[in-house]
Amino acid sequence: MEQYIIKGGNPLVGEVTIGGAKNAALGILAASVMADEAVTIDNLPDVRDINVLLEAIGQTGAMVERKARHCAKINGKTITNLVVDNSYIKKMRASYYMLGAMLGKYGHAQVALPGGCNIGSRPIDQHLKGFRALGAIAEVKGGMIVVEAKELTGAHIFFDMVSVGATINIMMAAALAKGRTILENAAKEPHVVDVANLLNAMGASIKGAGTDVIRIDGVEKLHGTEYTVIPDQIEAGTFMMAAAATKGDVTVKNVIPKHLESLTSKLREIGCEVVEFDDAVRVISKKRLTHTNVKTLPYPGFPTDMQPQMTTLLALSEGTSIVTESVFENRFKYIDELNRMGADIKVEGGNVAIVNGVENLTGACVSAPDLRAGAALVIAGLTTEDYTIVDEIKYIERGYEDFAGKIQGLGGNIQVVETEKEIQKFKLRMG
Ligand code: EPZ
User: Fold this and answer.
1) Residue whose CA is closest, atom 43 of ligand 1?
2) Which of 107, 218, 221 lies closest to 154 in space, CA to CA?
């Protein structure tokens, strides 16, 4: 089993280039099958979730051509199989985007009930509610979500909560429905806007993405296009936090600074210097940072996907910080692992962490419970001069391309190892 071994203690310094946004790319790839012409998607991150979805798209009969490491060409003209079900896809939450895409285009789809990162119960009631409002039958049968409609008709839908997944899913189906759909209380995340932009480039008529009211005028069919995925704001944010935690100086390149504003402002609040450029941000941290309070919220609030990395930073900052997780119910599972590294954090009521800052963390053997928490444990390891081993890095590989390589490029000592011999070799090299 692959692990990371880390010997931290030195600041991360230099430049890192951010890849395409995983969560935008997942929606975009699913939407690409909605045309009977070629859709070429560039700036795809080469991570496991993307590769699994591409494989699943191939299994529908669509033509999938990997033109380059970060570019794929998809043509949905040859789709014959509207059932998406394999052992990998079950582990991936975003597989449900195939429902909206295929329901819109063919009036039928079946997708295995999604898994994904273990961050709490993740209902899909808002997706089902949206599909039903468009006139589909939507039910869960034998571990599959089954959606079916003779004809989809535009509707006025008010989501009960802000859901990225439901907003994207219903937007896709409504793009080919008859008449106008209005989505209220829609998610405003950059990846919602990115999927809407792709659909519009394919001939859809979607207005208001990025606000909480999206208007979609259904069109007869979509056509081929070429599209580039936006940069990954969470990968960028993760490197910003790593720079801050290691008292480093990192320029995070190929980003949209506007998408990072909630992070930039928190970092500044706790004493970090952040310089914004047109398509880069530079994070400089020279001294011990100070405490603050953070509450995760839908965009433009502080992202839940950055909560573990921020908490790790606050674990090392002076004073007591309070971190409230308000999006997912089970996203503090990594706290026990951080405490094993010497952090002093108490979780109260399941969704509030009281973080008493400590001067230093110590190395330990820890296990990544999910993607972002795994990244946070790596950041923790990079701050301590001891050796840290992070297990279950398969979660991290779901969403970060070449994570260890990018950290090495900034001077961090981290390596993927599989055997005790490789661990010993790394330690020998570190002296
Ligand atoms: C997306 O998940 C992301 N995943 C998540 O990123 C991210 O944490 C999340 O949005 C919030 O930003 C992808 O884009 C593939 P939601 P999603 O629907 O769409 C509840 C990562 O680390 N809810 O916005 O599944 C839900 O339980 C991952 O990259 C319902 O109750 O999130 C949650 O509490 C992890 N019913 C809240 O809404 C529903 O039908 C927000 O979930 C749908 C959601």
Assistant:
1) 124
2) 218
| 147-158: pLDDT as tens digits | 999 999 999 999
From CA 89, how far away is CA 270, in angstroms rounded? 40
Mean pLDDT, all residues of the chain: 95
Ligand 1 pocket mutation, candidates 29, 48, 163, 394, criterion most atoms within 8 A of CB: 163
Task: Please check the confidence at residue 195 and state whether its pLDDT lies above 80.
Answer: yes
For Cα atoms 369, 323, 209, give the angle at the middle one, nearest 5 degrees: 85
Query: Which protein residue has the closest C-alpha to ligand 1 atom 21?
Result: 305
98 close to 112: Cβ distance less than 8 angstroms = no
Ligand 1 contact, 117 CB (< 6 A): yes
The answer on pLDDT for 121 being more than 80 is no
φ, ψ dihedrals at 30, nearest 5°: -60, -45
Confidence at residue 368, expressed as pLDDT on a 0 to 100 scale: 95
What is the residue with the minimal CA distance to atom 17 of ligand 1? 165
As a residue count, the chain comes to: 431
- Asked if the peptide bond before residue 123 counts as cis, ω within 30 degrees of 0, the response is no
399 lines ligand 1 (CB under 6 A): yes
- Positions marked active-site: 117
Integer CA distances (angstroms), 189 to 94, 114, 386, in order: 15, 21, 38
Strand-pair partners of 17: 253
Considering the chain, what percentage of its residues have pLDDT values greater than 70? 98
Is residue 164 within 6 Å of ligand 1 at its C-beta?
yes
**Residue 146: what residue type?**
V
Compute the average pLDDT of residues 345-352: 95
Residue 25 has pLDDT above 70, yes or no: yes
